[in-house]
Structure of Protein CLP1 homolog:
Amino acid sequence: MSTEKKVIQEFVLEQDNELRFEVESKNEKVYLTLKSGLAEVFGTELVKAKTYEFTSGAKVAVFTWHGCVIEVKGKTDVIYTAKETPMVIYSNCHAALELMRMEAEKDNKRGPIAMLVGPCDVGKSTVTKILLNYAVRMTRRPIFVDLDVGQGHISIPGTIGALMIERPASIDEGFSQEAPLVYNFGHKAPEPNTSLYQIVVSQLANTVKERLEVNKKTRSSGVIINTGGWIKGSGYRQLLDSAKAFEVDVIMVLDQERLYNELVRDMPQFVKIIFLPKSGGVVERSKSIRSESRDQRIREYFYGTPKNSLYPHSFEVKFPEVKIYKVGAPALPDSCLPLGMKADDHMTKLVLLTPNAGLLHHILAVSFSENEEDIISSHVAGFVCVSMIDNERQTITLLSPQPKPLPNNILVLSELQFMDTH
Ligand SMILES: Nc1ncnc2c1ncn2[C@@H]1O[C@H](COP(=O)(O)OP(=O)(O)OP(=O)(O)O)[C@@H](O)[C@H]1O
């Protein structure tokens, strides 16, 4: 047990102030308690006298609309109170979406489909979370869509997905992950395979639209879509395609006027484009921190969080028991392509793999599809990780959240890897 005494600090926040802190040191824990007044963390209200725990990697902002007293116990790397925040502007956006939801409810129509866009590290995921939390606090049931394959807020990185939000995010664990709809893309950025990205985005958009049709409450609550930070060149065209696929009504552009003006120029008139300033608190993340947080997401998928541990299973499957596919075949010169085939088509071609040492540590998506034709357009049941390949015995050892048997024998290779150090 550590004999080191924990540092205790008390902060008195005036109305509209924000206490920001970061926990960086490994194995460090910081405890936060609301002593009096009202406060929230990214849209989720703090319960008075309850202690919240934050571990290494946490970047937190405690905002108060009315003033409060906060106690922070433990070693933070940065901690300060900010008087200037864009929270009033974000709250006005929520109010505008809420008006659209009220109209939609009255006329039994679809509520607002809003998309957050902007470069990396401007707070897109954070504003998405704030807007979802505010909506659900008004008893709405919006759908959260995450198109950012880099971080994987709904499932693991390399995927896109949708989740119906029924209660505010937990301060330390995020949104409850009940029955998310997840599509495997298999790369940590859209660039390596934009054709495939476009297909999975359209597929997700169609499924989300179907869900809006069948649930009245969700239909009027609408959808909030988070996107990745790739906004230049084909990344920008990709954004336009995604906006079209989801039939968005509102696009909120964080921090970049150029992107805002391009969207005003290129989107149809009925789509409202809104410019939002970035919060001064948003922390920039280096490549290595992004990579660490991707690892952390995958580890949490298999092993859970300190508060909610999971115990994954490890089992063997024989080579013939599974079919492992890779999406995207090596490119062929135009002269070698069959008549009518475009050079781009190879990017969505399925290649059946013979299990080999190259699969070691790779993530495999367990497809819901029953035949080869539907693999790309099917959502996935979950993920396993290849922890051993034994060529002699013709077996693959898999780390899996569920015990044997696999729900399907069709597996799809992801570029993402996970080193299981447990
Ligand atoms: N007001 C704030 N105070 C302190 N930290 C903040 C604040 N807003 C956001 N952050 C932190 O900054 C980090 C980056 O924010 P966020 O993930 O929302 O950015 P992003 O634009 O979605 O990034 P990316 O493009 O990489 O997905 C997060 O760790 C988040 O917790």
